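I hope you will forgive my troubling you with a question about protein structure. Here, with my thanks, is the record as I have it:
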Amino acid sequence: MQENPFKFGRIVNDPFFTNRKKEMKLVRALLSSSNNLIMISPRRYGKTSLIDKVIKELKHPYIMVDLQLVTSSDDLAAQIIKRLFRLFPFEHIKQYVKNFRIIPSITLNPISNEVDISFQPSSLSTLVMEDAINLIEQLSSPKKRIIAVFDEFQEIKRINSNLDRQLRSLMQHHKKVNYVFLGSQESIIRDIFAKKKSPFYHFGQLLPLGKIPYTDFHEFLNSRFKQVCPAYDQITASILEITQCHPYYTQQLAFFVWERYRNPKPPEDPVEKTVSDLIRLHDMDYERLWNTLNKTDMKILIGMASSDLSPLSEAFSKVYQPGASSTTFSALKRLAQDGFILKSNSGYEIDDPFFKRWITQRRNR
C-alpha cells in the first residue's frame, strides 16, 4: 500500500496540502509586490503551511521567527541574525555584522554548520534591534526580496512594551523586504494592526483565515480514501462531521483511519474506533487540562460539549448555570485566549473535537 496521504503536526506541503486556492492567490499577489501581510486564524489552521507553500513557489529567500519562543528584544535580534546566516554565506554576513554598534557573540558549529548568536545584556537593546532589523533590508535585493515572517506576533508586547513602536519605525523605511505577521489571537492582532493609535495601523493587508470549506475538504478526503475503501464517501462524511472541517484534526483523524486500512480486516466503524483510540491516548493530557480550569470554565465547556445552545443564551444559563452574563463573557474570552474554544461568525465552539468527546464521555461514564 502507498504512503499515508495525510499529514499533521508539522508544516504541510504537497501532496498533503489542502486547497486554499483563493487565499493562495491573494498571498501570492501581495508577496510578489511591495506589500506586507497580516494573517489571523486560530492555532493549527494552517497559516504557516500556507505561507511556506506560497514562498517556495515564489522562490524568494525568507526567514521565520516564532515570537512565542522569544524571551527579549536582544533574543529576537539574535534569532533574526541566526536565520539570516542560514540564507547567506558566513563571510558575506560577517562584513555587515562587524559594523554593528553592539557586536554579538558568534559561534559556528563545524559539524552542523549552524551559527549561534547571542548578545551580552546591556541597556542598549534598541541599538541591537535596529542593527538586526536593518540587516534584513541590507541583505535583500529588489529582484529577490527577503520575506520576513513573524509568527504569533501578538506576543510582541510581552517581549517588550515598546518593541512594536521600534519595529514599525524601522520597517516602514524598508523597500526591499516583505513582512508577514501571523497571529492566533484575533482581538490582539486587530488591536495591533487595525486601531488608529497603534504603531502598526494599516501596515499591511489583513487576511483572516477560516476553516477549509466543506466541499473542498470532502473532495480532498474522497480522492484519497477511494484508493483503499469502497465506502470512501461515507468515511469522509463521518470524519468531517466529527472534526467540523478543522484543518489539523481532520488531517489527524484521516491519517489514523487510513492506517486501519493497512490491516486485512479493518473494523466495521473505523472512524468511531479511531476517535475512541485517540481519546484514550490523550486521556491523561485532557485530564491535566481539565484540572487547570475553574468551575465557571468547566460549566461552560460541559454545556458546549452537551448541547448546541449558545453559551451566552438565557437557555444555556438556566441549564448549566455558569453565572452572570458578564462572568460568562469573561470566561469565554479567557477560554478563547487559552485555545480551548473558537469564536466565529456562527458563535462559539470547542476547538478540539476529541476533547469535546472526552468531556461528554467522562460525564456519562
Q: What stands out?
A: The longest helix spans residues 73-87. Residues 21-208 form a domain with the Rossmann fold fold (CATH 3.40.50.300). The mean pLDDT is 92. Strands lie at 37-40, 62-66, 105-108, 115-118, 146-151, 177-183, 205-208, 341-344, 347-350.
